[in-house]
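Lecture notes, part 5. Sequence design as translation. It can be helpful to think of inverse folding as translation between two languages: the language of shapes and the language of residues. The source text, in structure tokens, appears below.
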């Protein structure tokens, strides 16, 4: 027997418009969208009915697993805590970032991220999780052991996205040394001589490993049909390299030049939702609002603050004349879903998964009142 439910008196945010109406859900999918209010069903009282958000890049699980230096939390418990915060932010599909490659920031031991992935799979199988969790491997290509770490994921069907990163100083995110000095010298209390050696070592590792490792990982992903993301592209040469690798997602470009070239080439340009909410980058790079104003921002990511993914689209719609709410919401739903080949979600449309949320706007900040995943209420 079919299971049906009706959500009515809602401001339904479609991909290109807002409809005052009702949605019929049948067997976990959207069965009908109609204008006007009906007498039966759950009354949204004029609240927004949004598609479930699709999060492609969040390091937030890592913060739950390692909440303090040297501390490792129980994996299942960390995953559940992360999941709870994600879902109550309106996110129904989340790509959890797992870091591969041991760098000077510590990283994780070989096998540790594999164990986390196994815990994610176990938690989903046991029905502990409310969001749909997939894996995004953040591969630090300038490390000596990144390929060794990647071998642990060669046959994992949870892996749907891989980003190729190089955080060596003097390029990409750290084109200038101010932020790098703050993060690696000041915070760690390194002397001038120690910092100089540290920088030279990181640059040497990048020169030795980044190119070959980027080649090998791109090839492996292409063979498995895994979406590849670039990271911190700063120059046209970086963008050309990304195009050559078949990259579909340009994460956090650090210059207008790179962002515009990526967008023109058909890559989805991703920036941080916290950047939108704060009005600036935490690392001193370009402001995401400026990219949005130029029409070259495609996808938002909550990065390190899950709630920012539901907050940022409202900020964009309020502050930029060229971006209305449907266009802003598409940056956190339809466009990220399409970029990674998830064509069954990300929009309020007949036949798609009933991944949706009820959102009330109060004094500028959205309130997520309810969340459904495949028609089942999860928050």
């Amino acid at each position: 027997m079919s299971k049906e439910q009706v959500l009515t008196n809602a401001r339904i945010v479609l991909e290109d418009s807002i409809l005052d109406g009702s949605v019929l859900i049948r067997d976990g999918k959207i069965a009908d969208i109609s204008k006007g209010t009906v007498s039966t069903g759950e009354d949204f009282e004029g609240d927004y009915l949004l598609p479930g958000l699709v999060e492609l890049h969040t390091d937030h699980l890592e913060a739950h697993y390692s909440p303090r230096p040297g501390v490792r939390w129980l994996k299942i418990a960390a995953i559940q805590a992360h999941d709870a915060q994600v879902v109550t932010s309106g996110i129904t599909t989340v790509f959890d970032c797992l870091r591969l490659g041991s760098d000077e920031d510590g990283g994780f031991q070989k096998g540790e991220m594999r164990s986390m992935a196994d815990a994610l799979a176990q938690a989903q199988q046991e029905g502990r999780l409310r969001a749909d969790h997939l894996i995004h491997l953040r591969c630090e290509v300038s490390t000596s052991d990144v390929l060794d770490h990647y071998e642990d994921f060669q046959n994992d069907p949870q892996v749907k996205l891989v980003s190729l990163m190089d955080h060596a100083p003097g390029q990409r995110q750290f084109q200038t040394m101010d932020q790098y000095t703050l993060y690696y010298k000041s915070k760690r209390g390194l002397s001038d001589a120690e910092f100089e050696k540290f920088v030279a070592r990181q640059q040497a590792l990048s020169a030795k490993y980044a190119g070959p490792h980027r080649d090998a990982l791109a090839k492996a992903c292409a063979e498995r049909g895994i979406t590849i993301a670039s990271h911190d592209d700063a120059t046209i040469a970086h963008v050309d390299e990304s195009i050559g690798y078949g990259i579909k997602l340009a994460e956090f470009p650090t210059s207008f030049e790179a962002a515009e070239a990526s967008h023109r080439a058909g890559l989805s340009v991703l920036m941080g939702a916290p950047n939108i909410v704060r009005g600036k980058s935490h690392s001193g790079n370009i402001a995401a609002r400026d990219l949005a104003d130029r029409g070259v921002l495609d996808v938002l990511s909550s990065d390190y603050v899950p709630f920012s993914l539901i907050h940022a689209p409202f900020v964009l719609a309020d502050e930029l004349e060229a971006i209305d709410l449907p266009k802003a919401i598409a940056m956190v739903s339809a466009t990220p879903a399409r970029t990674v080949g998830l064509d069954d979600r990300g929009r309020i449309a007949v036949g798609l998964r009933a991944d949706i949320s009820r959102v009330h706007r109060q004094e500028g900040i959205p309130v997520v009142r309810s969340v459904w995943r495949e028609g089942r209420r999860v928050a």
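The translated text above is only one of many valid answers, since several sequences can fold into similar shapes. The chain has a mean pLDDT of 91.
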